[in-house]
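sorry for the late reply, my laptop died twice this morning and i had to redo everyting from scratch. anyway the thing you sent over, i finally got around to it. pasting the sequence first so we're on the same page, its 543 residues, then the predicted structure underneath. double check i copied it right bc i was rushing
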Amino acid sequence: MAVAVPVLFLTVFFVWPVAEIVGRGFVLDGRLDLSGFGEVFARPRTWRVVGQTLAQATVGTLGALVLGLPGAYLLHRCRFRGRGALRAFVTVPFVLPTVVVGVAFRSLLVDGGLLGGLGLDGTFTAIVLALVFFNYAVVVRTVGGMWERLDPRAEQAARALGASQWRVLRTVTLPALGPAIASAASLVFLFCATAFGTVLVLGGRRFGTVETEIWIQTTQFLDLRAAAVLSVVQLVVVVGALAVAGRARARTERALPLGGPEAAHPVRLRDPLDAVAVAVTAVTVLGLLAAPLVNLVVRSLRTPDGWGLGNYAALAVPQDTLAVSAWQAAGTSVRTAVDATLLALLVGGLVALVVSRRPRRNSARRAVAGLDALFMLPLGVSAVTVGFGFLVSMDAPLGLPIDLRTSGVLVAVAQAVVAVPLVVRTVLPVLRAIEPRQREVAATLGAAPGRVLRTVDLAVALRALGLALGFAFAASLGEFGATSFLARPQDPTLPVVIFRLLGRPGAENYGAALAASVLLAALTAAVVAVCERLRRPGIGGAW
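ok and here's the structure:
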């Protein structure tokens, strides 16, 4: 049962829609036709998009690592006043809706923005900065979670033998953190390569990625063959990134029990490592993370008539041809996110429970690893492909005489598909950290399997489940790729409304889009603040 429910869910609402949309691009007149690969890759546009995708992902990953490693050290190995609040703040960008990230950076870089004079609007640099902004927390939490659990005796021995602090970092600490760094890098590369809303807002057609190109080919050119080819290419990249992340994560999870969370030391600015970490993190937090968000709030208060709350007042009435107001769309977003979160928590919790077991037979271990990798795929497969696949496959799911395409249920289901991997990655490390002998002792004392599950697994993972619930809710609240296809005109979500406002001319529409972005950012930030208080000490890298 614990395996059947998640597998059925993934098959019906992920594998089937993706296979349907890909199949329509490769099956012509009832026969398999792979000539589309040659046609699509013969276009210079395709190679330009693939090259831009790899370039943005590579540079974005390097930037996130360079800035994130000092942050991981400072926030997980050092102790100072306000560390918890700062941890919560640096996590906010990761769960911000991608549309909001794009709007925040665009408002900062356009003419009239704080950095408008630099000429970065609509450039490759702007996209990379936004990708680093979004993925900074992945590096901080993934690497920091392992860093705070490293046994300090190896470092102390090296220092006692006369090694400098920098040599200890280079020869002892960084090699020990290798699995966590590799895991973080592969995940950041994956997120950068599949970015949609951010790239669409900042780059448009000039700096598109494979993800945005799938959207353009599907919605504007109606070229399902090209979209199918690009979806397969993206899937290959995703599987490669997930394979690297999975191997690195497995090494990390095996290493975690070797040492408990070590007491963080106070920040010592006289130590070069601490001084560099403080300087780099301060510049990153103030210049890269806070500046776009603060500027977004400031710009939302600027109206054609001067400073005021006019843009927020406009959220109460529909703008132009929109059928609903932004406040009504926010209500729809919250209701849909609640449904998606509950569904994701059920499915993801069952997956984490099954994958956390360590069977003795090699075949069973391979099956468990395969299930883990399978449920990570929605993180990287194009949400556009999933959303459009829903439209073409959900007219009669499982042969039932119902058309789910006319129901708002599909939006919640699509958001749950995206949120399930986050639930798994948050709960799984905690379940794997449980000593198996605790379950064996409970069973020996006569506890039924259900009671063992309730008193051992659930009791330990309760805080992690609360954390997963919050992240799943935040991710569902801001999902845009699949929702842009599935949201009905009379029931759009807030990210869809923001994107539509940005596409309409006029200062009033732009101001309303800024105000709506602030509203959506505030909702997600509040959720993350609560989540951070539920974070289990020492388990900081559960992505």
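The longest helix spans residues 44-77.
thats about all i looked at so far, will dig more tmrw
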